[in-house]
Amino acid sequence: MRDIEGSENGVGPPTSVRTDDSLVVYADYVCPFSYLGTEVLSNYLTGRENRGLPSLSVEWRPFDLREPYRDSDGTLRREVDVEESLGAPWSAVEELAGRYGVEMNLSSPRYRTVDSKKAQQLALYVQDEHPDRFGTVHRWLFSALWRDSEDIGDEETLVDIAGAAGIDPASVRSVFDDSAHRRHLEEALEESERENVTGIPSFLYRGRTAQGAVPEESLQTLVESQ
């Protein structure tokens, strides 16, 4: 069962419109630091609202953390060195999850084999066509893998997630069958190279950057400093 409570405060506020003044976030669903960063960002957005500040437009952009582990046809090799791909020891994930109070099932082997490309394909579609549901779907994709150990590379799992957010299952299935949607994802992934993004999560705002699952105070400095 998907937990709707609180999901509206995820990346991509329901009423936001992407602008040149948006906070841009590069992330990948198979990255635990991206999940932690998303939860911290959600708390920061809630804090802004509680302080009476105007809503902040947030744009998510995909990043393929496992690109070095793909064969020439794009297929993910099943042997993924997790710590090598993260560039950090697993203990760092455990430490931050505890510090931020984020529930994660870190004993599951699922994250070692799952391919997030279809999840990112779905996320791009929702962000473009159903922006009012993006925050919900975005956080559910993370929690499905990192809390519930679901396979977010499985099309039916993704259809279930989108359907629970009120998106027509048939339209979601068509996304996976459409070469145009696959090209859209590849073009979006190329954007990270043009932006010289080398690690995730990366937060970009008005020419400034914060990288990693940084605390709320760092996001506040990034966005609110003059």
Structure description:
By secondary structure, this protein is α+β, with helices and mostly antiparallel strands. The chain has 9 helices and 4 strands; from the N terminus they run βαβαααααααββα. The protein has a 4-stranded mixed β-sheet with strand order 2-1-3-4, sandwiched between helices. Helix 1 links the parallel strand 1 and strand 2.
How much of the sequence lies in strands comes to 5-15%
Summing up helix and strand content along with how strands pair, one would put the structural category as alpha+beta
Any idea how many domains? 1
Strands side by side in the biggest sheet? 2-1-3-4
Describe the global form.
globular
Q: Report the CATH architecture.
A: 3-Layer(aba) Sandwich
Profile the largest sheet: 4 strands, mixed
- CA-CA gap between termini: 43 Å
Quaternary structure type = single chain
Alpha plus pi helix count? 9
Task: Itemize the secondary structure elements and their pairings.
Elements: E1 23-27, H1 32-50, E2 58-62, H2 82-86, H3 90-100, H4 117-129, H5 131-146, H6 155-164, H7 169-177, H8 179-194, E3 202-205, E4 208-211, H9 216-224
Parallel strand pairs: 1-2
Antiparallel strand pairs: 1-3, 3-4
Helix pairs in contact: 1-3, 1-5, 1-9, 4-5, 4-8, 6-7
Primary descriptors:
226 residues; globular; alpha+beta; 4 strands; Glutaredoxin; single chain; 9 helices; four-stranded mixed beta sheet
In short, what is this structure?
The protein is of the alpha+beta class and 226 residues long. It has helices at 32-50, 82-86, 90-100, 117-129, 131-146, 155-164, 169-177, 179-194, 216-224; strands spanning 23-27, 58-62, 202-205, 208-211.
